[in-house]
């Protein structure tokens, strides 16, 4: 499920700074990367867990764990629409 607010945060960015190492890393690319290789959904809390540096940069830059995104995901989970 594509999240509109994440797209708004992305803009024209293709990379970001890894919050763990401080190095520049490219963002997740849905045509090149497989979601499950870089992210895991925590269905208990509605958060996205980064599994790789690409995942960490993407979660951070796109604010994928903002309060509004978590609330939306929890709603989708309750409806059986996510993950």
TrEMBL record:
Superkingdom per UniProt: Bacteria
Protein's UniProt name: Uncharacterized protein
Origin species: Dulcicalothrix desertica PCC 7102
Lineage: Bacteria, Bacillati, Cyanobacteriota, Cyanophyceae, Nostocales
């Amino acid at each position: 499920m594509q999240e509109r607010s994440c797209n708004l945060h992305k803009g024209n960015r293709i990379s970001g700074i890894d919050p763990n190492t401080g190095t520049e890393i490219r963002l997740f690319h849905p045509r090149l990367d497989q979601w499950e290789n870089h992210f895991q959904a925590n269905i208990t809390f509605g958060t996205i867990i980064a599994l790789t540096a690409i995942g960490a940069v993407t979660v951070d830059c796109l604010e994928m764990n903002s309060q509004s995104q978590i609330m939306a995901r929890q709603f989708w989970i309750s409806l059986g629409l996510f993950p």
